Amino acid sequence: MHISIYSMDKNTLSVLMLPWLSHGHANRYLELAKRLIQERDNISIHFCSTPIILESIRDILNWPPTATSSSSLPAPQSRINLVEIHLPESAELPPHLHTTKHLPSHLITTLSRAFAQSQQSFSQILDIVRPDLLIFDIFQPWAAHLSRERNIPAVVYIGCTVAASLFSHCYFKPGKEFPFPAIRLTNDNRRQKKGPEDDQHVHSVLERVALSWQLSDFVITRSFREVESKYIDYLSTLIGKEVVPTGPLIPDINNVSTGNSQEAESVMKWLDQRKSRSVVFVSFGSEYFMPYKEMEQLAHGLELSGACFIWVARFPKINTEGTEGDSKELLHGLAERVGPERGLVITSWAPQRKILVHRNLGAFLTHCGWSSVIEGMQAGIPMIALPMEWDQPINAQLMVELGIGVEIPQHGLGNFTGQDVAASIKQILQSESGERVRQNAEDLAEVIRNRKDDEIPNLANKIVELVRNVKASVELVRSVKAS
Fold first, then answer.
1. Which residue in 98, 231, 358, 403 has the fewest CB atoms around it within 10 Å?
2. What are the beta bridge partners of residue 308?
3. Is residue 135 over pLDDT 60?
4. CA-to-CA distance for 19 and 48, rounded, in angstroms?
5. Domain for residue 7, yes or no?
6. What value does the mean pLDDT take over residues 400-414?
7. Residues 314 and 437 in one domain
């Protein structure tokens, strides 16, 4: 294995990051990496992931970086070193599928298993890089175990805290009521459990999460106290570890990948020509895909609502259900019926950040992935929740609790109606209650804009302190043994 590592002086603190194999997780880790090296000149980052994910990270970093002539220090991003980890070879999971992006849902477990089987590769990386600290994702306790075998401290980095606190409550206090009634586990979400195999899978995931808490010196969360204070404190109490927020960690809109610039310009020009607060932006991220019957109801709801809309619809790279052609035909039919003045359907990339802050956007219909929720909060745009699985239904409940959105009613696996979709859109765009939601969303965005953003300096201090204490303990043990 060959890993290129830039030269570092003895005072440099080296951090190895290992996110889950999702672009959403990778981007969250990358943004934390950029903030840490901006905060401390002596911190360097080794960012470890599969080649297919690092491909996009290189684009974001504008790799390779160049030093600025005005400073003796290298450009900050030159202290982010990309390290490839290679998963075991598999015909079922070729290298271009070593990411959840466009991955069919039935292969997620296969990907997770393959990642866990890359422990030998990760052990070699640890021995070559020899980091002072590992920052790992919640599904990879095996990475923290390998790190601790080498006296390297480990810290787990999560997204939202409310879901982590609820799932941990269910694991550590089964049968007891969650102390915050606005948040609950319910079967009224699309991905409800269907049988014993699902129960077993969920329990296995929760066991990995609990082990991650145990192996972590403290917990980092992409959150801030203005929205999750009580959940941050409760999680800390549950697991007996300090939970340190990072703040929203939203990249500067000017530093976000532009994708296809001509396509982006076309979308923004279309949006410019609509009326103020009249457009609904519909996006479910790049890793969750709607079955045909659900897309049919969503399309019906958008048409029924009478609102203008931009719908970003994506499909997995491997079409196992044979319905992709039908779905694309459905989208084509919707676009034809409503006409180009009212509806814009996109099946590739869209400039989400720029769309969310546009004056003509009226609502964001989202699956409630945490990054999308945070971006919606910062934009001050009312949200309409149509969550799918895992943390998304809980994120949707938090959004409703904060008064910045509404949730489309669901009753089991994909059981929602076009009428409910239309009613939720009309509630946000046309009713007094929708105006209250809009005001709440704008007020929260103002809070976010006026924040002091002092979490990263605090986190950097805690990282430095942890590494210093661990090194001192290791040296003490060595000296005792030597004597």
1. 403
2. 279
3. yes
4. 8
5. no
6. 88
7. yes
Specify whether 25 is catalytic: yes
pLDDT digits (tens, 9 = 90+) for 210-253: 999 999 999 999 999 999 999 999 999 999 999 999 999 988 77
Q: Do 196 and 292 belong together in one domain?
A: no
- What integer is the mean pLDDT of 82-100? 92
Residue 277 belongs to some domain of the structure: yes
Which of these is catalytic: 46, 132, 137, 358? Answer: 137
Query: Per the domain annotation, does 1 fall within a domain?
Result: no
Residues 222 and 200 occupy one common structural domain: yes
Nearest residue to 281 via CA among 257, 302, 300, 265 = 302
Tokens of 384: 């309409």
pLDDT band at 6 (very low <50, low <70, confident <90, very high): very low
Catalytic choice (25, 98, 169, 367): 25
In whole angstroms, how far apart are CA 299 and each of 117, 309, 323, 356, 396? Answer: 41, 11, 16, 21, 21
Report if residue 6 sits inside a domain. Answer: no
CA atoms of 426 and 3, how far apart (whole Å): 55
Which range of residues forms the domain containing residue 343? Answer: 260-449
Interatomic CA distance for residues 272 and 299, integer angstroms: 23
Q: Are 271 and 342 in contact (CB under 8 A)?
A: no
Considering the domain architecture, whether residues 305 and 379 belong to the same structural domain is answered as yes
pTM score above 0.85: yes
Task: Specify the CATH number for the domain of residue 346.
Answer: 3.40.50.2000
Coil, strand or helix at 130: coil
The enclosing H or E element of 476 equals helix 455-482
The answer on 265 and 140 residing in a single domain is: no
Please indicate whether residue 411 is annotated as part of the active site: no
Q: Are residues 464 and 399 in the same domain?
A: no
Where do the DSSP E strands lie in 116-249? 133-136, 154-158, 219-221, 243-245
C-beta of residue 176 within 8 angstroms of C-beta of residue 151? no
Q: Roughly what angle, to the nearest 10 degrees, separates helices 23-39 and 370-379?
A: 60
